[in-house]
Automatic annotation (TrEMBL):
Cited PANTHER family: GUANINE DEAMINASE
Pathway in which this enzyme or protein is active: Purine metabolism; guanine degradation; xanthine from guanine: step 1/1
GO cellular component: cytosol
Family as reported in the entry's similarity comment: Belongs to the metallo-dependent hydrolases superfamily. ATZ/TRZ family.
Reaction catalysis annotation: guanine + H2O + H(+) = xanthine + NH4(+)
MF terms in GO: guanine deaminase activity; zinc ion binding
EC annotation from Swiss-Prot or TrEMBL: 3.5.4.3
Cofactor note: Binds 1 zinc ion per subunit.
Record has Metal-binding as a keyword: yes
Protein name (database record): Guanine deaminase
Length: 462
């Protein structure tokens, strides 16, 4: 009945609990955590243990991890363009602004067709769940029907999500832009209403106001969206200071604003419910402003390297007191995997360290914290998800690493890409997973207690 699990709670330390057991109530919340279950109860006399638990056991299921497996909090992807998924891995030699024109706008425009949207959105939700993403902050497109469909699919598949209809009323192609400020507001309202009607208590999906970024929105549009943010209480997500060309445009388009962050601030879009993607090149004054407004940052390392945008400094953001999570930023980022984003976060931090010193380096624990607890804070769900604690929701993944069987060393089986030889400490196993693992190691995924994905080889254990 019991197995080892690993979790991180209030600190960035991994909490390793090799003989623990977790109870999950039918409501989807964690009802008990036993840190030290007697070894003799392992896969044996569960009845006695259940009796000892008494009422705590009633109405709860106990989740099983077998030898070599551990539970880990589900990943939070704080920035992903669901509509761009078909282009994941396709970006040539572009940098941001020409990449938008060449690859991104034509693809997003195709979501006027609902059948196209259905095909892509069904796959991106299935794919991210398979990678252990239990919560995603999605940018959709400007289309109301397609954006609403994405929210429907999230609810159907059981993924927690923030779903945003993209607003862009200027400097965008004729074939793909909001025709007016009024249209941007009207269509944003329509999506907010749909998502709220779909999930009135916001238990799984919530709407998020999504001005694409300052260059593609006029000042009146940004202001109107700021008012909508205030009026509806819906979250806001956008991009900031990703790339030099983009920043030059912002300086030219908004000459009266002190800096990029002030453009959003002056429009009422920099609040505790704002997620800013990238933040690669923020000045010290901007970091102070973001901190003062309690806005959050989504660090997107794979994208920042792929589009040669730059190296964001997580340590610097943390030192400024800013809350940071991870984003895959598909398809500026090539992978929908948050584990890949965590791996890239650690590598980028080491590139920074080569010129700026060891202080910049992030650890295994720190990037996995960004992927879970940090992300939960970015989307305002830290009381519910991102760690294992009684009363929190069971948003989790069961991770399995393949142990090299004696006498079978030359044989590659179905165990996935991580080879464990048996001598590794738990922290070392987790590090091996971070550096070499992929979705083959994510054996099963739960959101709010519901099993939302499992690997084919898990069939017999359900
Ligand atoms: N800035 C404006 N739009 C986008 C986008 O779609 N992706 C990224 N990475 N940056 C942007
Ligand atoms: Zn983005």
């Amino acid at each position: 009945y019991v197995g080892p699990f690993v979790f991180s709670e209030s600190s960035t330390e991994l909490d390793v609990c090799p003989h623990g057991a977790i109870g999950v109530a039918t409501t989807g919340t964690i009802s008990f955590i036993d840190r030290d279950v007697p070894a003799e109860l392992n896969n044996a006399d569960g009845a006695r243990w259940k009796a000892e638990k008494g009422t705590e056991w009633e109405d709860a299921r106990m989740l099983v991890a077998e030898e070599g497996e551990f539970f880990f909090p589900g990943f939070v992807d704080t920035h992903i363009h669901a509509s761009q998924y078909p282009n994941a891995g396709i970006f040539g030699k572009s940098t941001l602004m020409d990449w938008l024109d060449t690859y991104t706008f034509p693809l997003e425009a195709s979501f006027a067709d609902l059948a196209t949207a259905r095909r892509v959105y069904a796959r991106v939700v299935a794919r991210t769940l398979a990678h252990g993403t239990t919560t995603a902050a999605y940018h959709a497109t400007i289309h109301v029907a397609a954006t609403n469909l994405l929210a429907d699919i999230c609810v159907e598949r059981g993924q927690r999500a923030l779903v945003g209809r993209v607003c862009m009323d200027t400097l965008s192609p004729e074939y793909y832009r909001d025709e007016s400020v009024e249209a941007a507001v009207r269509d944003s309202r329509a999506c907010i209403a749909h998502v709220r009607q779909l999930d009135p208590r916001g238990e799984l999906v919530t709407p998020v106001i999504t001005p694409r970024f300052a260059p593609s929105c006029t000042t009146p549009c940004l202001r109107a969206l700021g008012e909508l943010h205030q009026e509806t209480g819906a979250w806001c997500q956008t991009h900031i200071s990703e790339n030099a060309g983009e920043m030059a445009m912002v300086r030219e388009l908004f000459p009266d604003s002190a800096d990029y962050a002030s453009v959003y601030d002056e429009a009422g879009l920099l609040t505790p419910k704002t997620i800013l993607a990238h933040a690669v090149h923020l000045s010290e004054a901007e970091r102070k402003l973001v901190k003062r407004r309690k806005a959050k940052v989504s660090h997107c390392p794979a994208s920042n390297t792929a589009l040669t945008s730059g190296c964001a400094r997580v340590r610097e953001l943390w030192d400024a007191g800013i809350t940071v999570g991870l984003g895959t930023d598909v398809s500026g980022g090539y992978s929908a995997s948050v584990l890949e984003a965590a791996r890239q976060a650690i590598m980028v931090s080491r590139h920074v360290a080569m010129t700026e010193g060891d202080g910049a380096k992030l650890s295994t624990e720190e990037v996995l914290y960004l992927a879970t607890r940090g992300g939960a804070k970015v989307v305002g769900l830290e009381d519910k998800i991102g760690a294992f604690k009684v009363g929190m929701q069971w948003d989790a993944q069961l991770v399995g690493l393949g142990e090299v069987a004696k006498g079978e060393e030359g044989k590659i089986g179905e165990d996935g890409p991580v080879d464990v030889f048996g001598w590794e400490q738990w922290e070392e196993r987790v590090a091996k997973w971070l550096y070499n693992g992929d979705d083959r190691n994510t054996k099963a995924v739960w959101v709010k207690g519901r099993l939302v994905h499992y690997r084919p080889e898990m069939e017999h254990r359900n």
